[in-house]
Specification:
This protein is mainly α. The protein is built from 19 helices and five strands. The protein starts with a strand and ends with a helix.
């Protein structure tokens, strides 16, 4: 099989006149190291705003190219023509092969949902190639790239290819186990408390709480300033702000390359930010910043770790993984698949409950979607959340059915923060953690 390595590079781009960082793919063929030109240009143009995204896209393209190298029609072909020879059926075969290998390993991953989502990301690469006039055989508009894993014939084929005994776990059983492990949609309040207490540095707990209240991505949270400028000139520590309303607006400079958007921030969340981080920690940490970098910490940088280093998206990820590993090692009730990113789901759930109240139990989803989807799209920064929206609706309906009558007082409180909202509900753990019904994620795929 073809050997491909990934490498993160940083350099000054003459095209946009600034420093960029992204992943590149380097293959070894016939004893030579070869840069994969088309994938690397794609990674530069489409993923340079987020190294995490660049790593993921590079990994998926690398997996697909390694798979192609094992197929008869690619034998002896130069790597530079792989993108020209690949077609929709190759993408489908790649999905099937990943499930064959999964059966052979008797592994819970990659799940069918992951396989499908990875194939969609691969399609963005071919769509990029098509739009720039490069020759490919992949038709993005036709769904012939999609493997039908619900077909009994397909499942039997995978079972035969994997050479597993009939009485071993097949793909249906593995998929069910996978959903049981990670289908719960929301992180519970108990898990939130455990995670916040496990962070070695309080700045990450503060960032997590701000994420709960704003639904901002980690890459946007770390850019939240001490003092804003331009459209965010009004953003400053809570004690210095105008308190004429329960909320304020904040312009998010979108890190994913989409247009900037204006989100709503509860003033109580800004007060918690000042009480729990700015007042007790910031002045000490900005001195450490000056000692480390030789100049004053600019007002555009608020979140610093205990060493005076600006908190980055990668630091949030690694420290969350450390905290999670600590909890799991101690045997605490914390699900292994949960990540920092889970906090983005709380805001839309509360927004739906506050907006509709008991109408959630009577109105069809189409009406609810039309009435509030734009606000959620704006807050989350998604172009389209129709598939995800039904899960938020389902969760909000479960909460309303369990706490009908009690929730109405919360709806009338405009200053209710996300954490206060969740804690006041005092949901049973199985309800707070409840996700889409068994098989729902597969259905969405």
């Amino acid at each position: 099989m073809l050997k491909i390595t990934t490498k993160d590079i940083t350099y000054h781009s003459l095209e946009i006149c600034k420093e960029v960082t992204h992943t590149i793919l380097i293959a070894e063929q016939r004893g030579q190291k070869i840069l994969l030109s088309h994938p690397n240009i794609f990674l530069y143009q489409r993923t340079r705003s987020s190294l995490r995204t660049s790593n993921r896209y590079a990994s998926i393209i690398s997996m697909f190219y390694r798979f192609l190298s094992t197929q008869p029609k690619f034998k002896g072909q130069e790597l530079g023509v792989y993108h020209m020879l690949a077609d929709n059926r190759d993408i489908m075969r790649w999905q099937v092969q990943r499930q064959v290998e999964r059966i052979q390993r008797q592994s819970l991953g990659p799940s069918l949902e992951t396989t499908f989502e990875d194939a969609k990301i691969l399609l963005t690469f071919f769509d990029w190639l098509n739009n720039r006039g490069f020759l490919t055989n992949v038709d993005v508009l036709f769904k012939t790239w999609r493997a039908n894993f619900r077909s009994t014939r397909m499942l039997n084929y995978i079972q035969t290819r994997s050479r597993m005994k009939i009485d071993s776990d097949n793909i249906r059983v593995l998929e069910k186990k996978s959903r049981q492990r990670k289908s719960n949609f929301l992180i519970t309040d108990q898990e939130i408390e455990l995670l916040l207490g496990a962070y070695p540095d309080p700045v990450y707990a503060v960032l997590f709480n701000l994420g709960l209240g704003t639904a901002m991505r980690p890459m946007d949270l770390v850019k939240f300033p001490l003092y804003g400028n331009g459209k965010n000139i009004h953003i400053m520590p809570y004690s210095e702000m105008d308190h004429t309303g329960p909320t304020t607006k904040y312009e998010v400079i979108d890190s994913k390359g989409n247009k900037d958007r204006q989100i709503t921030i509860n003033m109580d969340d800004l007060k918690a930010l000042e009480d729990n981080y700015i007042t007790p920690y910031y002045s000490i940490r900005k001195k450490l910043y000056k000692k480390r970098y030789g100049h004053d910490c600019p007002p555009s940088i608020l979140f610093l770790n205990k060493n005076g280093k600006p908190v980055s998206e990668s630091l949030i990820s690694s420290r969350t993984n450390d905290a999670k590993a600590k909890l799991l090692k101690e045997g605490r009730p914390f699900r292994s698949h949960l990540t920092f990113y889970q906090n983005r789901h709380w805001w839309p759930t509360q927004h739906i409950i506050e907006t509709f109240g008991d109408r959630l139990l009577t109105e069809p989803m189409e009406v609810l979607y039309a009435a509030t989807s734009q606000a959620i799209i704006q807050q989350l920064g998604h172009e389209d959340i129709e598939t995800t929206y039904k899960y938020y609706i389902d969760m909000a309906r479960v909460i309303m059915m369990v706490h009908k009558g009690k929730t109405f007082d919360l709806i009338e409180s405009p200053a209710q923060t996300i954490r206060g909202f969740v804690k006041h509900l005092e949901l049973p753990k199985d309800i707070a953690a409840g996700g889409p019904p068994d098989g729902e994620a597969e259905e969405a795929a």
